[in-house]
Amino acid sequence: MAGMLNLTPTPIFRPVSTRRATSDRVFMVKSSSVNTSGTPLSSISPPPNFKAPQPKPFSVRPDRVLDILGASLALLFRLTTSVLVSGYSVTVVPAKEIPADQYALGFAGFKLKESSKLGPRPEKPIEIYEFESCPFCRKVREIVSVLDLDVLYYPCPRNGPNFRPKVSQMGGKQQFPYMVDPNTGVSMYESDDIIKYLVGKYGDGNVPLLLSLGLLTTLTEGFAMIGRLGKGSSYTPSKLPPKPLEIWAYEASPFCKVVREVLVELELPHILHSCARGSPKRQMIYERVGHFQVPYLEDPNTGVEMFESADIVDYLKATYAL
């Protein structure tokens, strides 16, 4: 099955960039038997004989080494931005001080005791329309990781038939990123304005240094993506799922990046559960599956839950690409 997104457009107020959505704004993904070109689609199901792979921490599938190396270049240009959650702190303690049922990175008889200071938590996920290879969008994704927010992403790759047109309907122009906060009714363009809004509402009000350097920030964001040569920017015909996928990830991870690229190219709406270092959501994954590793994908449309970035990429293409 495919789907269509039905949204009641929010009113546009000028000249300010912040808008209030009406209280009767409707969001839903409606199932359909055809895709956007009118081609009939079969029910969404995992590939035949599919079996989720066993997680292999800190390993790279041989055919994906160059992908991960290219995605890792971002760490050179953006340093620790989006690696650590706001207010991150760490102490090294003997391993016995950390209960066995608590997530902690261990080495040589010691473990890292990590903590963070998070602001108010939004009741509903923030909604962001964007695409992977845009430096302005990356800026916003970085603050999402720093603030440890859950975000419902609507991918808007070039020639994407579903969500790019919706942004024009809602905001009046096709510009990215575009944010909608269903908790407050606020919607806006402009990456710097979105960052200031998010840190003011869900953080301590302070924009991290590496996200406050104006043109230098934008340039380094662009340099951070040169290793992937525009991946995550162009639409690949796909089935639109009835329900958003869910992925546990964070912006700085090269393994997460290669999965996000495919989610964007296939225009698959997804809830991203941020879990940079210091995030309490690392413990949540640990409790659920007895192991922490990202990316971790949950597909409510097929019931598939899986680790391993290379295998997730293969699964997404096999399940949703036309």
UniProtKB/TrEMBL annotation:
Compositionally biased spans, kind Pro residues:
45-54
Q: Which Gene3D superfamilies match?
A: Glutaredoxin
Give the residue ranges for region: Disordered: 33-54
Question: A single GO CC term, please?
Answer: chloroplast
Query: Which SUPFAM superfamilies did the record assign?
Result: Thioredoxin-like
Chain ranges of the GST N-terminal domain: 124-206, 243-322
- List all Polar residues biased stretches: 33-44
Instruction: State what protein this is by name.
Output: Thioredoxin family protein
Q: Which organism is it from?
A: Perilla frutescens var. hirtella (Perilla citriodora)
